[in-house]
């Protein structure tokens, strides 16, 4: 077991701690505007500076849709800078602490995220998104895929 596994104090992860393996993602999205719950099951990989995820989104009516997402990840002294795939800055993941928060304002919508690394190598992100037409929470859990 790594010294980072199940660490309870300040955490000093690096981008390299996310690379070189597949992560299984389990996600729930609560859409408050539609009073609906969606689920997502998939995988992601961080490789060559890209975060890429694929999986299946299950809609409230049971319909399943393929879903993909891709971001550019760049290592910094403070953690990871996340950019949209077109190069625009999204937010920074602070890897120096077991819990971290970030915010992104995309007029007119406000995105707030909380990351938890206290159970590393399991980690979570909780997004709260609000705007004139948006009001949802997206709770994701990541765990290393072991073969």
Rg of Cα set: 15 Å
CATH architecture: Beta Barrel
Task: Determine the number of helices (DSSP H or I, runs of at least 4 residues).
Answer: 0
How would you sum up the global shape?
Answer: globular
- Percent strand: over 45%
Topology-level CATH name: Lipocalin
Kindly provide the name of the CATH class.
Mainly Beta
Which structural class should the secondary elements be placed in?
Answer: mainly beta
Number of strands: 10
Order of helices and strands: EEEEEEEEEE
Query: Helix share of residues?
Result: under 10%
Low-confidence stretches: 5-10
Distance between the termini: 17 Å
Describe the structure.
There is one protein chain. The protein has one domain: Calycin beta-barrel core domain (Lipocalin, Beta Barrel), CATH 2.40.128. Helices cover about 0% and strands about 60% of the residues. The radius of gyration is 15 Å and the shape is globular. About 5% of the residues have low confidence. About 15% of the residues are buried. It has about 150 residues and is mostly beta strands. Strands 6-5-4-3-2-1-10-9-8-7 form a ten-stranded antiparallel beta sheet, with no helix packed on it.
Provide tags for this entry:
0% helix, Lipocalin, 10-stranded antiparallel sheet, 10 strands, mainly beta, 147 residues
């Amino acid at each position: 077991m790594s010294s980072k596994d199940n660490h309870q104090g300040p955490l000093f992860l690096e981008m390299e701690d996310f690379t070189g393996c597949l992560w299984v993602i389990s996600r729930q999205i609560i859409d408050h505007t539609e009073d609906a719950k969606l689920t997502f099951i998939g995988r992601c990989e961080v490789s060559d500076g890209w975060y890429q995820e694929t999986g299946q989104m299950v809609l409230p009516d049971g319909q399943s849709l393929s879903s993909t997402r891709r971001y550019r990840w760049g290592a910094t002294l403070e953690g990871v800078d996340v950019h949209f795939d077109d190069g625009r800055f999204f937010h920074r993941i602070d890897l120096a602490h077991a819990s971290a928060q970030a915010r992104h304002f995309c007029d007119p919508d406000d995105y707030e995220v909380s990351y938890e690394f206290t159970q590393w190598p399991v980690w979570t992100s909780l997004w709260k998104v609000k705007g004139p037409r948006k009001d949802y929470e997206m709770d994701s859990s990541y765990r290393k895929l072991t073969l």
